[in-house]
Structures are given as C-alpha cells and as structure tokens.
Amino acid sequence: MEKRGMWSSRFTFILAAVGSAVGLGNAWRFPGLAAKHGGGTFLLVYLLAMLVMGIPLLMMEISIARKFRKGAIESMRGIKKRFEPIGWAATSNAFVIVCYYSVVFAWVILMFFNSWQFAGMTGDSQAASNLFFELTQTTGVIEGTSIPGEVLVCLLIAWGLIFYCIRNGANSVGKVVKFTVFAPVVLLLIMAVKGVTMDGAMQGVAMLFIPDFSALADASLWVDAVGQVFYSLSIMMAIMFAYGSYLPDDANIPVDCMIIAFSDMAVSILSGIVMFSTMGGTGMLDMITDSGISTAFMVYPQAIVNLTDIGWVNAIFGAVFYLMLITLAIDSAFSIVEGVSASISDKFHLRPKNVTIAVCAICGVISILFVTQSGLAWLDIVDNWTNQINLIIIGVLECVAIGWCFNLRKVLSEVNRNTKEFKIPYWWFAASVKVIAPVLLTGLFVWNMYTLFVIKGGTYNPDYAIWAQIAAGWVVSVLVFISGFIAKIFIKRMKKKGYVEDEVTFD
Q: How sure is the predictor about 506, in pLDDT bands with cuts at 50, 70 and 90?
C-alpha cells in the first residue's frame, strides 16, 4: 500500500474544499433562484439553511473521514458494517454525476473557443441564443446519434484537464487549486465592475439584495433554498469524505468548515451581482432563470451581444464569462472523480492513480452519450434523478445512520478535537443531524415526488420518450442503491482468493 496522500497545508485543504463546493451552480442557479424568490429574501433563507443544515453535515462528513483516513465506502463501514451500502450509493451516484458534468464542462470549453463569434452578433440576440444549439447540433429530445467533431474534441480536453488535476491525488489537487479557486473570483470581479457601471445596473443589484418578505409564504422558496445549500456544498457525494481523509490530526474542522461554507456563499453572491447588474444594464432582468443550461448557453449570450456597440469588446467579455465558468467547473469535476477514486481504492487496496485512470476512462466513454444530438435530453433526465431523488435519499440515509444508529457525541468529539474557542455545541449538531436535516431533506424529496407524480402526471418531461426516462432515470437510481449489495457478492468471491477487508471502528 502506498502512503496516504495528505494536504500540504491547512490553506490547501480549504482551497480544495472551496473549489469543490463552488461550481457552476453558484454562477447560474443561485442568481436564478434569487430572482425567482424575492432577492434578499432568498439570501436570508439560504443563510438560515446553511447554518441549520449545510455546515453541520459538512463537519460530520469531514470529521468521520479524518478519523478513519478512508473514503466514503470504508468510512460508512467504519460507522457500522451494515451502513457500507450507503457509502457505495454515494460513490456510485457521484460516478454517474461526473459522467454528465464533464459534458457540461466540455460545452463551456466549446463556448469559450467560439466566443469570438459574438463579435459579429452585436445586438442580434437571436443569433447569440442559437449559437450553442448550432455548435452542439442538439435536438432537445431523444433523437439523433451523430456527434459533432468540435464537441468531441472539447470533451477530450475536459477529461484531459480533469485527469491532469488529480493525477497524484491530494498532491496535484493542492497545486492546481491555488490557481483555479482564485481565477474565477478575479474574473467575476472584472465582470462585476463592468456590470455595475452600466446604466440600469443598480436596478438589478437592488432586486438581488432588497428582500420581498411576501415571498416567505411561498413553500417553494424554502424548498429551493434547502436544495441549493445541499447541492452546493458537495456533501453526500463522496467528495468531502475523500478530502477529509487527507487531513492531518491537528485540523480545526469547525473553523475550516465555516470558512468553506461562507466562501461558497460569498462567491454565489458575487455571481448574483454579476448576473443582476449585467441583466439590468442590458434591460433583460425579466429573463433571469433558475435553469443553468438556459442561463449559460441561451440567456447570457444575449446579454453579451448587447453589452456595448463594439463587437470585439463583447467577444472579450464573452470569453471572460466562459473562462470563468471553466475555472468553476474544473474544480467540481475533478473533485467528484477524486471522491469516487479514493472510495474505490481504499475499499480494494488499489493504487489510487490506477483507479483514477480507470474512473476517468470509463466515465469518459459513458460521457460520449451526452455529446450526441440527443445528449442534452439524456443529460437532463439523468441529472434530475441523480440530484432530485438519489442525492436526497443518500442524505437522509446518512443522517439516520450517523445520527440515530450511532453515538453522535463521538462524532462531535472528533469535530471539536482541536478547537478551543469555537466548539460546536451538541444541541446545534444533534438538532441538525438527527432532526432538521433529515426532516428538511425528506420534505424536499416529498416535494419532488409530488411535482413528478401529481403535477407532471408521472412524466418528468412529456417531450422525452417514456422508455428513456425509465432507463436513464429509474433504472440508474435502482443501480445506484443496489451497487453496495452487488459489490458484496464480488467481495465474497474475492475473499476466497485471499482478499481481506479492513476492519475499521470509531473508537
């Protein structure tokens, strides 16, 4: 066995965790939800959800992983052997997510390379909105199997970058994040300066920050805020188990997690300022949407070509925008792969680099499905089930397993091990892990099921073939949750050939 990689410093760990948490959702979904739910009102509810759910769960995963020095599968096995399938579900779901997230990353690269085309579209919103569809040749439905060569090249670039960043685990990640975490902030600041100096920008900024308290009565506000916190912090995806397992014994988890969570929120707010000021300056405030794909590839391009009357200036800002998305996407993409790789290599005592190569190769092949002409539809289906169903169920299972079927005070003791001035009180930690988080996540799951079966009549999108929704939705979900039980069958066979499972306990 190789010596386990460790973060070179506390600063490096924080940067890596912030990089994983801060992703494309911060840049496009957060502003869209703020616009949907009364601006400042959403910010307040989001902050509340972060404090009562997000931060305690982040501390929980990181502290358990540090204790065991293992990824998600072995960490959950360390809690109790019967909880190992929960770790497998988190790892398998992350595996599925990175297959399509890498394609979104590739699309962003594609738009960056083609941002020069905005120079010839000044004032032509329709042409700007159509650029993405022309480049990807997407049909928007389950029809078409051809693959545009340019998109395939961008996908290869995306996977090449992902592997390069995590080729040596914590060591190479630590070097990369020193650039990829700060770069998007700098690019966002450049865009914010441009945005707030435009006529009408302050109307947009006011819309972001001034609360509309009547929105508090809307149940969907609370659902969306809880969901955004849950998805944004990279919890329940095997990532924070991997990153926590590389921490030294003297890490101050409560303080570090506070820094990670509020850095994530700060970038979201900065992204909101960019979005609202730009849309206000171009007279497009009513077009802000919580659909990430629409925002990045259809709506924002329209704003880009209306920024100025000078085409090449618009093209430059278009390039800056997509470069910013590239720097946001890469951290999240390689962190998901690292979570999967660490989990598998720890379980089977494999060389981490070999597992990383295998994961990148297998996911890379699967991701080709999502760059076909019908790829956007396939991606939409898989994304809905992995996030709106699988991830939430995994979250509930983790909370119940650790909060109700284990001694939570042991976990809290691990959380507070190295902190003197900022100890997390038991009432806050226990209330979150045992009650608030599982209740909120169960409510989110029920809401999603109500939307799917009652409001939509059991069909996620009527434009997609039912067989496709079953195959890419329900079948994938079933495979995610039975992956641990399938693994047990293979492990039993491996034991007959000499394989020995690690025995880890939370002493």
A: confident
State how far the Cα of 85 lies from the Cα of 75, in Å rounded to an integer: 11
What does the pLDDT read at residue 3? Answer: 65
Domains and CATH numbers, the chain: 10-380 (1.10.4160)
Tens of pLDDT along 201-219? 999 999 999 988 888 888 8
Rounded Cα distance between 282 and 304, Å, is 9
Beta bridge partners of 495: none
The predicted-structure confidence for 349-365, as pLDDT tens digits, reads as follows 999 999 999 999 999 99
C-alpha–C-alpha distance, residues 319 and 116, integer Å: 8
Give mean pLDDT, residues 467-492.
97
List of residues 6+ apart from 356 with CB closer than 8 A: 163, 166, 167, 169, 337, 338, 341
Tokens of 378: 């396939």
C-alpha dihedral sign at 206, 212, 216, 217? negative
How would DSSP label each residue in 200-221?
Answer: THHHHHHHHHSB-GGGGG-HHH
Q: Is the dihedral of CA 207, 210, 211, 214 positive or negative?
A: negative
pLDDT higher than 80, residue 300: yes
Query: Position 272: which residue type?
Result: G
* Radius of gyration of the chain from its Cα atoms, rounded to whole angstroms: 22
Q: Is 112's pLDDT higher than 90? A: yes
Alpha helices in 181-286 (DSSP H): 182-196, 201-209, 219-232, 239-245, 253-281
Q: Are 321 and 279 in contact (CB under 8 A)?
A: no
